[in-house]
Structures are given as structure tokens and as C-alpha cells.
Structure prediction request, 377 residues.
Amino acid sequence: MHALEEIRSELLRLKCDVAALWFQRAMRRYAIALKAGFNPDQPRDERGRWTDAGVASVDGGDVADGEVLDSDLGELDPTDFSDVRRRPPNLPPIESLSNIPATQPKSQQERNYIAQEVARNVQLATEYLSGGATSARHWLNEKYWEIRSFQDAPKSLGELHDGVFQADKRGYDVHHIVEQTQARNDGYPDKIIDRADNLVLIPRYKHWEINSWFQTKDKNLGGLTPRQYLQNKSWDERRYIGLKALRDVGVLKP
Amino acid sequence: MRGTVLSRMTTEQLVQLFAELSVEQDRALLLRAISKVNKIYDKLEAIESELKSRPGDQRSALLPLYNHKNIHVRVKAAKATLAIAPEAARAQLEAIRTSGWQPQALEAGMSLGFLDEGIYQPK
Prediction:
């Protein structure tokens, strides 16, 4: 019995080491890529390739997965309310599957917008996933796995950790509970940031929700973003917030 | 509306603008246009300050937005009224958190957490 536990423990340790090595290798590659203006937080597809939904920010700061810079809007004066009706691309709310354009929108931004509208509406998502109203060749099917993974019931922390090692990650992303870029900027070493207990596999669109939230100004934090608020905070405090975000986004069991 | 000065707007107009901007922010969130989301935040704060500065603290005019069709408007209205209607605002945030509708459930849940931890004290 004792020997079995030792083997299990050794196996877990090896898994951690493999994961750490994999990430160190990846981070070296991304460090090189960063010099070319790429963003390591940019979303990936199921094969680990960068998708075109995210772009690097001009100033080298963090950009949420899937964020598209809206620099074309220009600098807005916070006291100028004249742009109230200025809209991003004119997309209608998706309230039924019949609202989904039959032809594929050109930009990844628009395609993700529509797919997320479907994903977050249980009724619509159920209808879509059961094959209703969309043909097998419909363009939205490129987002099938993202829409499907979004419907996952909350899991235990152990299940989310184990997911990192599953072979089929379609519709999912590996997520750092304590944000990697900020932790790295604050001097935490990679071996802590990329440790197995900081990695979980979560649905891609929920990953994007969390990343967006971390960059969004919050009234409850005096107008700071959570990322700014957590700067120079302890690892435990960051982890506490990271775990709470996973719970509130419906990924981690309460 | 270029050059609109908030102090010249009626309370009703300010509430309408608050709702419109919140809908716009919801859309920007879905498009991951984070810098726009943050610019709208500044505007919502400006409206809230203007309402607060009016006789009798007119933030109470935001309370009817708890019934708005758009859930993001409801989150923003709840957070803006925590100081004047703490119980109702908390109940609204709790309902949104348990609805599981993202990303508003995330924002509502984190907001409640910051309140419970004493990180945020509504004024």
C-alpha cells in the first residue's frame, strides 16, 4: 500500500516536471516571439497555435485573450458623451439561431462575438449543439468546441488540474490561477508560475472572461483593474482571487 | 450630443445615458475591446458622481434599472446603488451571481467578495 502511494507520488512529481519543462520551453520560444511584437497570452487553438482573435498591445502591456484593440476609436474624453452611439462593428444581439448570419463574418472578432452569444445562452447553445437550425457546413461549427466546453458543469480543483494533461483540449485553454504575466513582472520565478498546482484546464471562452475581468476597471477597487490591484500583493492573495474568479465564472465547484 | 455637460442634463436623461452606456459596455466586453470598456467605466462613474451630487442623492433614480432587460445594466445599477440601497443592491448582485450568466455573474460574484472582505466600502 505504502509502495503504491510512493509510485503515485513519483508519477505526480514526474507529471509536474514534464509540465514545467514544457512550459519553460514554450516560454523561451515566446520570449523570442515577444521581441517580434507577439503576445504570450494570445488565445491558441486546440493544436496550440495562436489564433487571430487576440493581438499584442502597442505599448507591450497585457491584452485580454481575444481582445481586439479599438485604437480606431481614437482617444475619448471621459467627459465627452457625444460618442454614445458609436458602436463597434454593427452586430445585432443574437437572440435566436435565426439571427446568426448565414455567411461567415470576415473578422475573427465578429465570429467570436456571435459564438459567445450562443455559448452563454443555455437555450441557444442546447439548440445549436443538438444540430438545430445549422447545417453541418455552417461557419459557426468552427466554434463548436468553444460553445460546447462553455456548457461544462463546475469541476473540482483536482479535475481542473488533471485536465492539463488530457490529450484532447479542443475548446479549452490552459489557465494560470495566478496570472502569469503579472506574476512574472513582479519577480516570481517560472518554476512557481508554471507549477502544476497553478495550472488548470478551463473552457476557452471562460478563460477569456477571466482575462478580460482582470483588465477591467472596477468600482469596488477604486477604479483600478484587478491586475493593478494585485500588483505587489502576496502569492496567496493572488491565488485567492484567482480561485474565486474560477468559482464565479462557473468553472470551479463552490 | 457633442460637448454635452452632465450638469445640464435632467436626472431622467442621466439614467437613460447610464443604461445606454452599460449596454454599450456589455457589447464591448463581448468584443474584448477592453480599452473601450474602461473608457465607458469612466463615463459611468462621471454620471454616478453627478447624480450623487444632486440634492437628495439622485443615485436612487438608478434603482428602476434593476429591472432592465440587459443584465449588464442591472450589474452596473446594483454596484452604483450599494451605498444608498445596500440590501436591495446586494440581493440584485447575488441573483446575478447565481444566474451564471457570464461575464456578469463573474463581476457580481467578485463584487460581493470585495464587499464581504471589506476591500470595498460603498460611499
